Amino acid sequence: MSPSQKSELVLAIFPTSRGFGWVLFEGPMAPVNWGIASVKRNRSAWCMTRFGKLIDLYRPKAILLEVNDSPEDVPRNRVATLAQDMRGFGVNRDIDVHVYSRAEIATSLLSNEHASRADVVEVVAELLPILRDRLPPPKRPWQSVDGRRCLFDAAALGIAHYRITRRNS
Fold it and tell me: Confidence band (pLDDT; 50, 70, 90) for 106?
């Protein structure tokens, strides 16, 4: 990848209680790399170190994050703080940081701001078949969230970003 290509990269990040999922896009519907960063101890410090390494490696033009704005979807304090730290990290490095609500993401993918995360994951798997082999099985009420879902949440951020910015331009 040449330096000129790197300037157009967009990094979508979805922090969780276990780490974060990320997808690097070079354009709409064009993921070039992705992964899940998870850790058991020193989570915030380790996540920020890993996040910094991604920024240094890819030098994205923009960082995408989701803001949790609904009362029933309030993240644990550490996750909210991690997202805020990632946002500040990007701003301090003069990287554009775009923050989208869950409703904006669901609306851009499904035209329904109340769509479930499971519905969003299914749409992402259809739109980005390259990620389909990482699709987590449907969650049962007694199960915790599958760690792979954060990858699809990050991908949904990227897809939504391109749809929203295209619509607004």
Answer: very high
